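User: Hi! I have a protein structure encoded as tokens and I'd like to know what sequence might fold into it. I'm fairly new to this, so please keep things simple.
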């Protein structure tokens, strides 16, 4: 899925094997597909608005009161996430249940946010822009969690920041990007894994043992985090 150039513009497209299907537009010249679930429902953007396609039938998901919105992921329950402009022009992480958008908000003191993924439990990950920069964020059924909150002082003092969470599976594994504010050229990937025993978590970064954890609302589990350098 993605988009394909046609004689009338760039259209959202889904491929079954090597066979493309044009998902079309609602009269405009551009649309794109960004996410798909196991039922074949596709989400993306068309005409500047978040859109869901059931088969080749598009539905405009609307906005949070602003002019634009976009969808990037859909779970098997049919919940859609992405971002939307608000009445005041800010961009906020958004979840759609059916065609009803809900503002997921930002971390305290934040001004913009975006959601990148949702699992079948309805847990959403993405990032929120705060006064301290871009922070990886988990939205867990009304609870906003800055993943950096759970880094220990040594890790923070070393300059590491979990900036974006890109994905979460049904087991609660979270993947994303991290950077170092003291060494601007360094970019790493992180993986947070729930473990049953609080004593058995660890964070490893470039061969150094660093400690950190995050909490899940439904289960009092902590996470083991591995961070590897991106090539």
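Assistant: Happy to help. Inverse folding works backwards from shape to sequence: for each of the 231 positions I chose a residue that suits the local structure. Here it is:
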């Amino acid at each position: 899925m993605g988009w394909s150039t046609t004689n009338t513009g760039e259209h959202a497209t889904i491929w079954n094997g090597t066979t493309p299907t044009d998902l079309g537009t609602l009269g405009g010249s551009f649309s794109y597909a960004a996410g798909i679930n196991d039922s074949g429902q596709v989400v993306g953007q068309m005409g500047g608005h978040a859109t869901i396609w059931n088969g080749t039938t598009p539905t405009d998901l609307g906005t949070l009161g602003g002019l634009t919105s976009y969808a990037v992921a859909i779970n098997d329950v049919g919940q859609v996430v992405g971002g939307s402009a608000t009445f005041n022009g800010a961009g906020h992480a958004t979840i759609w249940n059916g065609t009803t958008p809900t503002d997921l908000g930002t971390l305290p003191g934040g001004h913009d946010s975006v959601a990148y993924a949702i699992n079948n439990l309805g847990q959403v990950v993405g990032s929120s822009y705060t006064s301290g920069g871009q922070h990886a964020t988990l939205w867990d059924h009304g609870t906003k969690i800055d993943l950096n909150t759970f880094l220990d002082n040594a890790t923070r003092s070393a300059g590491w920041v979990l900036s974006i969470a890109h994905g979460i599976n049904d087991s609660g594994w979270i993947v994303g990007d991290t950077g170092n504010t003291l060494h601007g050229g360094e970019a790493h990937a992180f993986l947070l894994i729930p473990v049953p025993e609080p004593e058995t978590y660890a964070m490893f970064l470039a061969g150094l043992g660093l400690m950190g954890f995050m909490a899940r609302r439904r289960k009092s589990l902590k996470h083991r985090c591995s961070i590897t350098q991106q090539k």
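A useful reference point when you look it over: The CA atoms of residues 128 and 227 lie 20 Å apart. Feel free to ask if any position seems puzzling.
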